[in-house]
Design a protein that fits this description.
By secondary structure, the protein is α/β, with parallel strands linked by helices. GO terms for molecular function: sulfotransferase activity.
Length: about 250
């Protein structure tokens, strides 16, 4: 059985660009189903174990997938650690306010089977104000219209707890953490860092990182009230993540 040994996260942070970068390298096999989400029991895209492991049938050095749910879903990390103890992780983060708003936009654009948006709250601020109530509601968790954590715009952007969950199970050297701002402003350095982290020929990646799923600037789309709400929720967050990672990250976008 061929197993994945390279996993990508987190959602709405540039993971799709990284996925396409890796897909072009001759020593990396990426899952054709970008986010099989197999190790998230309540949001599996691929549900059959045989089908899942067939996605990685290859003799290439790395077999990768990019299920963003593994980063936010609490049950995934211990399962991955038990099954894939030698896995490596490429983690892309971004400004938490920008990520929260980008996720809301996606949930408003995407449609449910009933023809209405996945997110029924019509404004970003309304969704933020609903978050605590939704989080504490077993009924919402059981009946929400999509992946539960995709409605937790702020809570799913608390990277420190998510990253710490993995660092309690894997050693720090299994992770390469970067930000979307770094992908955009320093692509050559990021490609070199990935090559060194994976011990691969840098030339296999090409010269640039593909730009996918580009979204408009977020700052002028967020009301002062929403900024204030997120400032409270995200206080000290980036500093805590910097400390976990061991270097100051670029949180500018």
């Amino acid at each position: 059985m061929t197993k994945p040994n390279l996993l990508l996260g987190a959602g709405k942070c540039g993971t799709t660009s990284l996925y396409h970068l890796l897909k072009g390298h001759p020593e990396i096999k990426v899952s054709e189903v970008k986010e099989p989400s197999f190790f998230c029991s309540y949001f599996q895209v691929v549900t059959n174990p045989v089908t899942y492991f067939e996605l990685f049938k290859s003799d290439k050095k790395y077999r990768a997938e990019a299920s963003h749910v593994y980063f936010s879903n609490h049950e995934s990390a211990p399962i991955l650690a038990s099954l894939f103890p030698d896995a490596k992780f490429l983690v892309v983060l971004r400004n938490p306010k920008a990520r929260a708003h980008s996720l809301f936009q996606q949930m408003r654009r995407a449609l449910h089977a009933d023809g209405h948006p996945l997110e029924l709250a019509e404004s970003f601020h309304a969704a933020l104000e609903l978050e605590a109530e939704r989080f504490n509601s077993p009924a919402f968790h059981a009946s929400c219209r999509h992946y539960f954590w995709n409605f937790m715009y702020m809570r799913s952007s608390l990277y420190d707890g998510q990253l710490a969950r993995y660092l309690n199970l894997y050693t720090n050297d299994r992770f390469l953490v970067m930000t979307l701002a770094e992908l955009k402003s320093e692509p050559t350095r990021i490609i070199r860092s990935i090559s060194e982290f994976l011990h691969l020929d840098q030339n296999g990646f090409g010269d640039d990182i593909p730009c996918t799923n580009a979204a408009p600037p977020y700052s002028n789309l967020i009301t002062p009230a929403s900024h204030a709400l997120m400032d409270e929720q995200f206080e000290g967050l980036t500093e805590r993540v910097d400390k976990l990672v061991g270097r100051p990250l670029d949180w500018s976008i």
